[in-house]
Write a structure and sequence with these properties.
By secondary structure, this protein is α+β, with helices and mostly antiparallel strands. It folds into three domains: 164 residues, Reverse transcriptase/Diguanylate cyclase domain (Alpha-Beta Plaits); 61 residues, DNA polymerase, domain 1, CATH 1.10.150; 148 residues, Dna Ligase, domain 1 (2-Layer Sandwich), CATH 3.30.1490.100. Helices cover 38% and strands 19% of the residues. The strands form three sheets. A five-stranded mixed beta sheet has the order 5-6-1-7-8. Strands 9, 10, 11, 12 and 13 form a five-stranded antiparallel beta sheet that branches. A three-stranded mixed beta sheet has the order 3-2-4. Strand 2 and strand 3 form a beta hairpin. Helix 10 runs antiparallel to helix 11 and helix 12 packs antiparallel against helix 13. The longest helix is centred in the middle third of the chain and has 21 residues. The chain is globular, with a radius of gyration of 24 Å. The structure holds a DNA duplex.
DNA sequence: TCTGGGGTCCTAGGACCC
DNA sequence: TCTGGGGTCCTAGGACCC
């Protein structure tokens, strides 16, 4: 039986989320900006039609924005995450095998589901639209890589009406489509590799499909060998149905305004470590070390540049916020240099293991460990029910002069009592 | 004035061991 | 004169994804 994998992808996801609660944005050019209102990360169709590319710095398109009255919104991840959960849970009804691949994409196993797949996919679109109001497109094929391309075709080509099933096509039809897709659009082929492939006269998805495996293996890597197999309909990438535990947890952020004060960096590092430790405990893991990282703004070449990081191993794996903060601060203080305008700081938890696999040591101090665990549990419970940050370390500070810019952020319409969407009755 | 954040995987090279 | 080979582990860095 032929393998059938669907990729369901939300259209202009963040913009679509914003439009749910601000219907006035419908039909208008809208962008959502990254943290710090830095870059464009989601564009409405109207903005795409103006030729605005993904990840363009916002300050570079100010003129265009004025000219065309583009609405720019700060990103509101609480809202997007909640809408995403609703979409994913609806989609899970369509197959016992689901991989939630990203905030706006999901793979669904359709192999063995004995219905007309195109009709089934139309039903998915309709269901998500009716229940949540988010438009989606569906691509279906015999491997993940092909289903990504099928989705691409469904999105770009109005005549497919949002659903494209490669499995229902003849080889010639499919190749005809692949020949018109740039090799850079293939999943896993980035800008660097696309350039190198073009040097070898591999320009389209079809060219890559037909490339000799040996040739690809030696010139690139096993990853590319797999891509070629997947393009030929040989499924090499399985669906990850349970999200595996993270092997590293990163929390880093650019500052709203650069700072050269160690005290500011310390506050930021404590805040980031606190967040990361919460995530670590959520997935019931411990980490073996923590890395602190600072850097100046690399785009300001006229400024003195400094970037550095230091990994602090822990004496034994831990998930205690206080311990992790202490280690991170130690690292920060050893890399910090006076007189630099730092633009970004971050931390990374590494050497992550399941909490259940905690190694026993000769000098295990069980009572103090149990106290630490109880304290962290209580902390998490209070912050979960009373709002995040209700209880935190004093070192995190209260002023946060370094906090990021979010000039035009919408309400958290679905997750905060104070910001719930209200239906206004018409007179 | 203003350029995101959070992840994964692979490779190369060094250290170390027998 | 002549100085092995193979395995493992770790780290840094590159490339990619959304």
């Amino acid at each position: 039986m032929q393998r059938a994998i669907a990729l369901v992808d939300c259209n202009n996801f963040y913009v679509s989320c914003e439009r749910l609660f601000q219907p006035g944005l419908e039909g208008r050019p809208v962008v959502v900006l990254s943290n710090n209102d830095g870059c464009v990360v989601s564009r409405s169709q109207e903005v795409k039609d103006l030729g605005v590319k993904m990840a363009v710095p916002w300050f570079r398109m100010r003129d265009l924005a004025r000219q065309h009255n583009i609405v720019a919104l700060s990103s509101n991840y609480s809202l997007y995450a909640d809408i995403s959960n609703r979409v994913m849970s609806l989609l899970s009804r369509f197959s016992p095998g689901q991989e939630v691949y990203s905030i706006d994409e999901s793979f669904l196993e359709l192999t063995g589901i004995a219905v007309d797949h195109t009709g089934y996919a139309r039903q998915m679109r309709l269901t998500v639209m009716q229940h949540v109001g988010i438009p989606v497109c569906v691509g279906i094929a015999s491997s993940k890589t092909l289903s990504k391309l099928a989705n691409h075709v469904a999105k770009k080509n109005p005549r497919y009406a949002g659903v494209c099933d490669f499995n229902g096509m003849t080889e010639a039809e499919l190749n005809g489509l692949l020949a018109r897709i740039d090799v850079g659009e293939v999943w896993g082929v980035g800008r660097r590799s696309a350039d190198r492939l073009r040097d070898r006269d591999i320009r389209s998805a079809l060219d890559l499909k037909r490339a000799a495996a040996k040739h690809i293996r030696s010139g690139f890597s096993v990853v590319f060998e797999r891509i070629v197999a997947e393009l030929n309909g040989v499924s090499c990438l399985e669906l990850d149905q349970v999200a595996p535990a993270k092997q590293q947890i990163i929390c880093s952020r650019s500052f709203g305004t650069p700072t050269s004060r160690l005290a500011d960096l310390e506050q930021a590092v404590i805040a980031y470590t606190t967040r990361a430790a919460e995530k670590l405990r959520q997935q019931r893991s411990l980490c073996g070390g923590i890395q602190a990282y600072i850097r100046t703004n690399p785009h300001r070449e006229q400024d003195a540049q400094h970037q550095s990081s230091m990994l602090m191993p822990l004496p034994e794996p831990s998930d205690d916020t206080r311990l992790l903060c202490r280690a991170a601060l130690h690292g920060l203080r050893s890399i910090y240099r006076t007189g630099h305008a730092y633009q970004k700081a971050g931390i990374m938890l590494t050497g992550i293991i399941p909490a259940a696999a905690r190694p026993q040591t000769l000098f295990d101090d069980v009572p103090s460990r149990e106290k630490s665990e109880a304290l962290m549990r209580t902390l998490d419970r209070i912050n979960r029910s009373m709002g995040s940050g209700t209880i935190r370390l004093l070192g995190e500070g209260t002023g946060k002069p370094w906090a990021m810019r979010r000039q035009n952020v919408s309400n958290r319409y679905t997750t905060e009592w104070d910001e719930l969407a209200v239906c206004k009755a018409h007179p």
